[in-house]
Amino acid sequence: MAMLTVRNLPDEVHRALRVRAAEHGQSMEAEVRAILYEAVKPSQATGLGTLLAESSRDYGLEDSDIDAMEEAIAENRRKYQTTQQPPVSFE
Question: C-alpha dihedral over 53, 55, 58, 61, to 10 degrees?
Answer without folding.
Answer: -50
